[in-house]
Amino acid sequence: MKKFAAVVLFAVLVLALVYAAGPKTYQVTGPVLDIKGDVITVQKDQDKWELLKTADTTITGKLAVGAKVKIEYKMVATKITVQ
Questions:
Q1: Sheet with strand 25-36: strands edge to edge
Q2: DSSP for residue 50
């Protein structure tokens, strides 16, 4: 019985950590078309994606126009209007 209770407690803790981690992380991969200040433009299929680089953004390698990059991002609400 103690073993079952320990397993259930462990499962509850794992689920709590997953939900406490915040929003899901996504990624976009493609060549860099432009870098202007903190905005990076990446070509993804026929679309151009503009992503904001913040002070918390980690960059591995040399970020330059033409470089193929994989950018991980989270969706963040900047304004919510209830109608």
A1: 47-52, 39-44, 25-36, 68-74
A2: E
Looking at domain 24-76, its CATH architecture is Beta Barrel (2.40)
CA distance 9 to 14: 9
* Gap between the Cα atoms of 57 and 50, Å rounded: 15
Residue spans per domain, the chain: 24-76
Amino acid at the residue 73: Y
The residue length of the chain stands at 83
Please report which residue ranges of 1-83 form alpha helices under DSSP H.
Answer: 2-20
What is this structure's pTM?
0.69
8-66, pLDDT tens digit by residue?
666 655 555 556 667 899 999 999 999 999 999 999 999 999 999 999 999 999 999 99
